[in-house]
GDP-L-fucose synthase
Amino acid sequence: MNSTQVMGSEKKIILVTGGSGLVGQAIKQAKQQDPRENETFIFLSSKDGDLKDPAATQRIFERYKPTHVIHLAAMVGGLFNNMKHNLDFLRNNILINDNVLHNSYKLGVKKVVSCLSTCVFPDQTSYPIDETMIHNGPPHPSNFGYSYAKRLIDVQNHAYHQQHGCHFTAVIPTNVFGAYDNFNLEDGHVIPGLIHKAYIAKKEGKPLVVYGSGKPLRQFIYSIDLAKLFLFVLREYDEIDPIILSVDESSEVSIGEVAQMIADAFQLEHGIVLDSTKADGQFKKTASNKKLRGYLPDFQFMPLKEAIERTVQWFNLNYNIARK
Ligand code: NAP
Ligand code: GDP
């Protein structure tokens, strides 16, 4: 056995970019619940260096010499932030991804797992959407900057594999939520945005204001479930082609139903009102998890109601430190 092996298994230094965010914090918790003796995780935040900057990225990679990378760092935001900043989402994410993937190649990283999203799929499409359909048409106009930057990760993964034999792959999560999310009222995603609004509505004895028609459909995954699936992909998934990490199609819900679950978790007494002057965004992006189910047929997702109640409890207990 050489110095890079522990009891027959290879030592892994796993660098997690974006380790301070919603998904990164969940991976921190999931790996504590399911540890491996040969794995050392390093969780980065933007304080460790700006990954838009090639020199800063190179310094980070030379310092930690990772064998594996989970690449989460990104400019991330909800519908209304994307609509205002398509250029920033495009440029910032292209820069971050190129720096992370190229330094992974230069340093001989054995495996990179990056993160796409089901919102990068074509807007005009048949349903359910699967992994083969990423590049089959333009994304929804509300978030085209983020979408094209994310789609390029898949292009780069195949190019690094073809030209240099690199094992770079990606996961495609659906809408994620949980502790450590961005609870900003205007820039965050729908669940953290509505949780923060419901917190205020409860204090002020007012109704919960839900943007749009409440009719769009979404599949939501609890961050801890996503984190467990990330660890499976890191440890066992060998394809370059990406894999959708989503709850089942039967778990798809309307925004109105999710808003009601949040109102119920806060025991709001003044109900919900819809602000139909606000955009609905993409109507639906129903994704198939058939490929995932092929690998993990028995994986149990936490029921949405329970996961929302846990997130509301976290927000109430951590109001002072929550990102908002
Ligand atoms: P998040 O909570 O906003 O976290 C973003 C992370 O990226 C933070 O750790 C942040 O560091 C870091 N970061 C941002 N810009 C950076 C930069 N220029 N240099 C270095 N680090 C930077 O996001 P998330 O929701 O966990 O998303 C993680 C991944 O999942 C992203 O790739 C996202 O596209 C993908 N995803 C998210 C969702 C969702 O619903 N949230 C759905 C599908 C896919 P600081 O904490 O220091 O700012
Ligand atoms: P998306 O799934 O990428 O479109 O992003 P979001 O998580 O921002 O979800 C957007 C959907 O939720 C749209 O149909 C919005 O109209 C609806 N929505 C309702 N209230 C809110 C809110 O307070 N914040 C956000 N971000 N979306 C809301």
User: Anything to note?
Assistant: The two ends are 49 Å apart (CA to CA).
